[in-house]
Amino acid sequence: MIGSKPNTISGWETGGRKVDLDDLKKLADAYGVDPAALLFAPPGGPKFEAMKEASNLIEDMSPEHAKAWLELGKAIVSKKPAT
Question: Start and end of every HTH cro/C1-type domain (predicted)?
Answer without folding.
Answer: 1-38
